[in-house]
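Please, structure for the following, as tokens.
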Amino acid sequence: MTPLIEQYLDIKKQYKDSILFFRVGDFYEMFFQDAEVASKELDIVLTGKDCGTEERVPMAGIPFHSADSYISRLVAKGYKVAICEQMEDPKEAKGLVKRSVIKVITSGTIIDTAALDETSNNYLMSIYIDDGKYGLSSVDITTGELMATELASKEDLLNELIKFKPVEIITNKPEELESLLNYGSFVHKWDFFDYNIARDEIIRKFNVNSLEGLGLKYYERATRAIGALFMYIKATQMVASDNISEIKLYTISDYMIMDKNTINNLELLETYRSKEKKGSLLWVINKTSTPMGSRLIKKWLERPLLNIDEINKRLDAVEELVNNDEMREKLKACLKKIRDFERIMGRIVYKSANGRDLLFFNSSIVNLPEIKNIIQNAESDYLKELFNEIDPLEDVSSLIDSAISYDAPMTINDGNIIKDGYNEEVDKYRKASTEGKNWLAQLESEEREKTGIKNLKIKFNKVFGYYIEVTKSNIDMVPDYFIRKQTLANCERYVTEKLKEIENDILGAEEKVKELEYQLFVEIREKVAQQYKRVKASAEAIAQIDVLTSMAEVAKTNGYQRPILVEEKVIDIKVGRHPVIEKISDDIFVPNDTYMDTKEHMISLITGPNMAGKSTYMRQIALIVILAQMGSFVPADSAKIGIVDRIYTRIGATDDLSTGQSTFMVEMNEVANIVNNATDKSLIILDEVGRGTSTYDGISIAWAVVEYIAKKIKARTLFATHYHELVDIADELKCVKNYNIAVKEEDDKVVFLRKIMEGPTDKSYGIQVAKLAGLPETIIKKANQKLVELEKKHIYQKDSVEPIKQISIFDIGFDFKYYDLIEEIKSLDIDNMTPLQAINQLYKLKRALCD
């Protein structure tokens, strides 16, 4: 093997799981299998290189100045990329150039802003698994945010994975995570979860005496996860993670719990089917102006608060911004000028920022004094706190403004990065490279005048450099400070100290200025990096101001009102609206009232045909609750919301082919999860429970579920169903109220009025809905004929149906009796009955039911 390939292989041994980008001149080269993989994944030419063996080894290469885009593509596909740089100038190297890996880039450690979604965090997660319990730590190294917790169940872990969506996970037991991850997260086994090592790493990182001051004294699993995370970052980035300045320790009980089904069914972040942002709740409420704000509002939406004081603190600030148009408009205008300086700071700390990054950074922080000035007279406590948290960073801005050229290049080694006037030496070298001829001409003129030698000339050659040439006839006029350099037949050549200085400035000016500018830039970048705590505090404050301003703007534009949060278990909404449907529907949205408590209005049993609006109505209640507890105004004339600790939804189901589960089994799993985990402070939304099996099985299960919730869980529940038989449960359970979605019939057609009405419905309108859907007329006619036949045959006669047995899994049950009475009830002409006839008929029915 040639020395170069031997060097490559020695380095590659240390990074077997990475594609090695091996710097050779102006290229990163890859060899052997790395070259083959890179060629395929990056669509670049695969060539060969002589390496001292009989056959050429596979080789592929990319220009070093465009490496970021190639690295991003590889990382997005799950590869790790080790960057191996030349550690000395090839011109000065004695033999083989020294090379070393300076960082390893993974999906969770990439900091190239062009490769990241600015509206979402890029989380690297560490999970320590021990005896069915979990220590979890998540970091976005681009922002420096680090969160940690401990979890007691796999269900809790799954909920956190759904919220964080980590792009990369390190863990001691990767096999236990495989069944939980159904999205693109790359999992690596990591061996450094030892408690003592992790503890020492954390103590050293935060310069404390013990874990107690960090709140980690009794969190052994979380400590292991955090320490392992720091060690992984150090192993890959090879620099200190200085932008991580604190650990945000939390428990899942700090926030409302929403599982994957709830987040998907309510379309909080994206639409259920098309996975688009438009049509989601986030799409409606996210009017933020900065990337930091966009990331934060998503977190607030995913983690509604449970503490009323904290919620009201946000609502007070939103209300002030709603009522103060001038403050809100000024903030919006100023926030729009701010770039993602939180992530740029990450690039600065990890020594990846260039001159333009610093300019973009400065263009953002220069607005901080103005924002601080806008909110200086704010009345709400939250805005006052944010005023104090904003550091104007005027010294940092002044440094960058005085030092970095406005047209700084993308690279940091090619000069033209330092502004004129910042450094005398740079100015001198830069002037030397551009004005050297003028200096020489001026010196030549000065020496002629001093010496009186009229034909004195300054010349140059490659051997002697610059020199003063004097003819033999004028030698007696040469002054003492001329130093003889060379004697020729008809002249003498001299140098002076002044000429040596000019020569030194001119000949080395270009290279020297590049080297000096690079050194100065690194110093400036380091000075800025040292202010990471100040910058982080300001970035977090700006993000919060942005979110509050966004929520105020949405409230003002859409006519939202401030909700009232209470501890009592009530939901009282007047003229409530669905925040998304009213924005995307061409029809006029029909608002509805809602009242729920845990006594006489615990369970709303909603009947009505498909397309009538049952699901929309139920979802809008959940969305209003979520908005209220995240601190937002809500789409209603008024809303009194008793704190909800968890929201559960079961809306629709499909086969889960990956686990071999039928639609009905998926549905039952979801229902089981709800009834096993909901509390009396939860909000439950159930849509068509039991429809995946036979009619009577389905009715039985639905009845039993409603009764179990009413008697055991006692949670506020919205239960939509097509089973009209279920409406009778309201006679047995006083906490159940029947509601229906109003429908108007016109000439065998149905018009959906979208209005929720008290009381049950007795028709499904299934055939009419099928007609609206576009089924051929032949099918519609046949369906109507068959319906008449079935009704004539008294399909619900009691002798054709076996009594429904008790459902042991819920330890409750009921019987359906006397189905033959249904037709008699249907035939009653109530409109033409006298009061006496109606009473007599009622007694008759009562006797029949009691026999």
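The chain has six domains: 3-105, 118-254, 286-393+531-558, 424-522, 564-763, 820-851. The first strand starts at residue 18 and ends at 24.
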